[in-house]
Design brief:
heterodimer; A: about 775 residues; alpha+beta; Aldehyde Oxidoreductase, domain 3; 3 domains; seven-stranded mixed sheet; about 25% strand; globular; B: about 150 residues; Ubiquitin-like (UB roll); DNA polymerase, domain 1; 2 domains; five-stranded mixed sheet; oxidoreductase (chain A); Ald_Oxase/Xan_DH_a/b (chain A)
């Protein structure tokens, strides 16, 4: 391979670092109207009255929008396939507000300043209700967060709003209770994972204008432009043929932009007034009023027989979706479906529980998407079980984990919101990942710990799997066009959000067409111009959209050979093509001559093809993560000395970009493992609402990352590739918890793993000894 | 009120309000490489050079720039290209939202301390947050740029 599996620099990095216009707000019209939202000061209340008379009189205020301006059409802001597996429980503006930061009304004016002034002049009276701020008390609480009648589910997701349940699910294979009763060793532990904020550096941003064809053109920083178009069309009753969504460069998404944010209000104002309009979230709004990761309580029971074989996994999960049910069911199911098959030799597995509403900032999609929560619980529980059985946790994993050419019945039962798809692990190099990682971290020299005087060094590890798109649901497509002079345009609906997909997809096309990346000019995500794609989520782009590009490039090459055969007046099988020259017997024709001829000379035509791909399976990438830490013996502060990631993501299309994507995911996972936490006050106000109060890792927190790939080739992927976008984030929480236990003999079961929690456990431990 | 600022070596006069921050004034005047991210000097994305020193423009009142030199990445295109080349070689480009400000800060580091050690590089850039790369790729690229004598 000449292009694929090579370390090509990203195709767009230079233009971006040089400061060229690239991101959504860079394209806003200069005289755009500004939309500002008045946000709820109450965790749960009904709006009784709104006096906006003074605000409306202000010079420069165009309009004030309240719930009375919108028809009551329930929808979900979650950017998912259709019908959505999220409840339709949101209105553009509603008479209820369900968390501090929820939308009360919007003002539209000529400047930020006049909008701010207007917001201060509006008097809203509320009837305040008792909120639910503890998700463990939400189910069947006397407060009902969604009492409205219009809301509904699109198909059965266990939606029961009268009990504050956004979704629920139950599955069991075998007989869990019976299996547990037969086990020699059992454990029963409860784990908690916290809300995490995405902190993509570009805030949520959208702007719109009417074009000269009187169509609504929206620029949005989104991961899912086609879903945005559909959801806006539905909720605002604007014909979809009147809407064009363009996704410029996105300044980070991580799942946070897999949903509607300001789009609805901006679209409404522009469509209604004909004037350009924009909205940019402040950082405070990004924290308080976009999304977080779903916090979860995961109760795990594991059992093993006398030979230390894992026999049963029982998993009861409660998830907090906050005020609205975006991705409620699907994130929840991934906590099981992309975690439990790791140990596929068990007799019985159960996964069940509820996703409940609370009066907190809504939870939504976030890299790892449930898998990171499930992984923390399962991979912590496995180490606890190993301690009890006095077996090396690596040896135990090697004995019990998923291997190549094996499967798990869970794949067929659990999908993302619907039934799953049975599949074999045609590629699974987890064994190699574990062996290699163990060696690279120097496990045998340290395990379980090494006392360095002031510090204790220790190691911990965890294994993980993810998916590559959602089988039989996620669809990507690509169009490729041959231009005169012999270069190509690649049009994809796939959404570059910084993960490097424009580069990787160009590499795939270039490889098939035997040309250079520079000859493939890519455009991504303009709903008018590029073919459909579900968008950047579920680790799908390289696998799903990549397969579409691969197919399209193959078809175009075939079309080109057909035309060359016509020109040479022979059969297609007699033509050779090396990417530059067509050869027939002794005759040669350059690609340049060929494309100029079919563009300008005889029997001219445009060669262009479109192909789509929807996967019958979702081959999981696998990974083993190993952490080496130093714990201060007095303060219990943790330094991460090294993180070794050994990844099987099939053949990497761009080994360098893949490596750096894993690096970034590890650091985001370490943030969640060590200190990131969305915190609320007693009355439900989000306290960690800026970057002074919500700490993400800085470059001083990171000492060494060692990310490597094992040799792997996934037959169903483009050039052997599986996905790599999310897998990296999954292992840090459990690996760190396991390393802390190896160092100190205490087990932190709730994230983040802070010195305070360790200190408390150490005190309890020393009291027990006394 | 009117302020006189030399932006990227060009004399400019901006009509600004007393409460306006330099970030907003620059964006309004089409210096779009300067971008908003955190609103309170925590992340470094809005960094500009004020008389060659990196400063977050989101919290610098525009009137304070009166009479000073402001540099945005548009003013150091050749250096940005060089830095961008090393970023590309290390795979340090992801979403890129922080990259123009990163280039400015790295350039300022080279002016101030061209022989910076690893720890000095990290400390100088600690206020330039990145959520994508995990920092290691950037660090390798920055080290190579500082070593580039061309």
């Amino acid at each position: 391979m000449k292009v694929v599996n090579h370390k090509t620099p990203s195709i767009d990095g230079l233009g971006i670092i040089k400061g060229r216009k690239a991101y959504t707000d860079d394209y806003a019209e200069k005289d755009s109207l500004i939309v500002k939202v008045l946000r709820s000061p109450h965790a749960f209340a009904k709006i009784i009255s709104i006096d906006d008379s003074k605000a409306k009189k202000l010079d420069g205020i165009e309009m004030v929008l309240t719930h009375k301006d919108f028809k009551r059409i329930p929808f979900t802001r979650a950017g998912q396939g259709y019908p959505e597996p999220s409840p339709h429980d949101k209105f553009v503006l509603d008479e209820f507000v369900r968390y501090i930061g929820d939308e009360v009304l919007a003002v539209v004016g000529v400047s930020n300043e006049v909008c701010e002034k207007a917001l201060n002049l509006i008097d809203v009276k509320y009837e305040v209700f008792e909120p639910i701020l503890d998700y463990e008390k939400a189910k069947n609480h006397h407060t009902i967060i969604h009492p409205e009648e219009e809301i509904h589910q699109m198909f059965d997701i266990g939606f029961n709003p009268k009990a504050n349940i956004a979704a629920s699910y139950h599955m069991e294979i075998g007989d869990v209770e019976k299996s547990l009763s037969e086990c020699t060793y059992t454990i029963h532990e409860t784990f908690y994972t916290q809300a995490q904020a995405h902190v993509m550096l570009e805030p949520h941003t959208v702007n719109a204008r009417m074009d000269y064809q009187n169509r609504l053109v929206i620029y949005s920083s989104t991961q899912t432009p086609f879903h945005v178009r559909r959801i806006i069309g539905h909720a605002l009753e604007i014909p979809m043929s009147k809407i064009r969504v363009i996704k410029p460069r996105v300044g980070g998404g991580f799942g946070g932009k897999q949903a509607i944010h300001g789009e609805m209000l901006v679209a409404y104002v522009t469509f209604k007034t004909g004037k350009a309009c924009k909205m940019t979230y402040t950082r405070k709004e990004v924290f308080e009023s976009s999304y977080t990761r779903h916090p979860m309580r995961l109760e795990m029971r594991l059992g093993a027989d006398k030979n230390k074989k894992l026999k049963v996994i029982d998993c009861h999960v409660l998830s907090d979706t906050g005020a609205y049910g975006e991705h409620a069911l699907t994130v929840y199911m991934v906590a099981g479906s992309k975690v439990l098959p790791l140990y596929n030799k068990v007799d019985s597995v159960r996964f069940y529980g509820d996703v409940v509403y609370t009066n907190h900032t809504p939870a939504g999609a976030y890299r790892g998407y449930g898998a990171i929560q499930g992984n923390f619980a399962l991979e912590s529980a496995i180490d606890i079980l190993c301690k009890k059985m006095e077996i090396d946790p690596i040896e135990f994993r090697q004995k019990n984990m998923m291997k190549e050419n094996e499967t798990s019945p869970i794949f067929a039962i659990m999908g993302e919101g619907t039934e799953g798809t049975a599949m074999m692990m045609d590629t699974c190099k987890l064994e190699e990942c574990v062996i290699k990682g163990k060696e690279l971290i120097g496990w045998d020299n340290i395990y379980p710990y090494h006392d360095n005087g002031e510090y204790i060094e220790s190691v911990g590890m965890a294994i993980a799997m993810q998916g590559s798109g959602i089988p039989l649901i996620d669809m990507g497509s690509a169009s490729i066009k041959l231009n005169d002079d012999g270069f190509y345009n690649l049009m994809v609906g796939a959404t570059e959000i910084g993960q490097g997909s424009d580069t990787v997809l160009s590499q795939i096309a270039a490889e098939v067409l035997m040309t250079d990346v520079e000859k493939v000019i890519i455009y991504s995500s303009d709903t008018d111009l590029t073919p459909f794609d579900v968008g950047a989520y579920a680790s799908s782009t390289t696998f799903v959209s990549g397969n579409a590009v691969y197919k399209a490039a193959k078809e175009l090459k075939n079309e080109m050979l057909k035309e060359a055969a016509r020109i040479f007046n022979t059969d297609i099988s007699n033509i050779d093509f090396d990417g530059q020259i067509f050869t027939y017997n002794e005759k040669e024709m350059s690609l340049k001559d060929f494309s100029n001829q079919i563009t300008y000379s005889h029997e001219q035509k445009q060669l262009q093809v479109t192909s789509s791909y929807v996967g019958p399976k979702s081959p999981p990438p696998f990974m083993a993560g190993f952490v080496k830490i130093a714990v201060d013996k007095d303060t219990f502060e943790i330094r991460v000395l090294d993180y070794v990631s050994v990844v099987d993501c099939g053949t990497t299309i761009n080994p360098m970009l893949a490596k750096r994507q894993v690096d970034g995911a590890i650091v985001q996972g370490l943030g969640m493992a060590m200190f990131e936490e969305v915190k609320y006050s007693k009355n439900g106000r989000l306290i960690s609402n800026d970057l002074l109060n919500y700490k993400i890792p800085t470059r001083l927190d990171i000492e060494n990352l060692n990310t490597v790939f094992v040799d792997s080739y996934e037959e169903s992927g483009p050039f052997g590739a599986k996905s790599v976008g999310e897998i990296g984030i999954d292992t840090p929480p459990a690996a760190l918890a396991n390393a802390v236990e190896n160092a100190l003999g205490v087990r932190v079961k709730s994230l983040p793993i802070t010195p305070e929690k360790i200190m408390k456990l150490m005190k309890e431990k020393s009291n027990e000894k006394k | 009120m009117k302020i006189k600022v030399k932006v990227n070596q060009v004399d400019k006069v901006f009509d600004v309000q007393a409460h306006e921050y330099l970030l907003d004034v620059l964006r309004k005047n089409d210096y779009v490489s300067v971008r908003r991210a955190c609103d309170n000097t925590s992340c470094g994305v809005c960094t500009i050079l004020l008389d060659d020193k990196p400063v977050p423009s989101c919290s610098l009142l525009a009137i304070k720039a009166d009479g000073h030199h402001v540099t945005t990445v548009e003013g150091i295109q050749a250096e940005a290209e060089k830095i961008g080349h090393y970023f590309g070689q290390e795979g340090a480009d992801q979403c890129g939202y922080c990259n123009p400000s990163m280039a400015l800060t790295v350039y300022a580091l080279k002016l101030e301390n061209p022989k910076a050690t690893d720890q000095e590089i990290k400390e100088y850039l600690v206020g330039n947050l990145c959520r994508c790369t995990g920092y290691v790729a950037q660090h390798e690229a920055i080290r190579k740029y500082l070593g580039d004598q061309s």
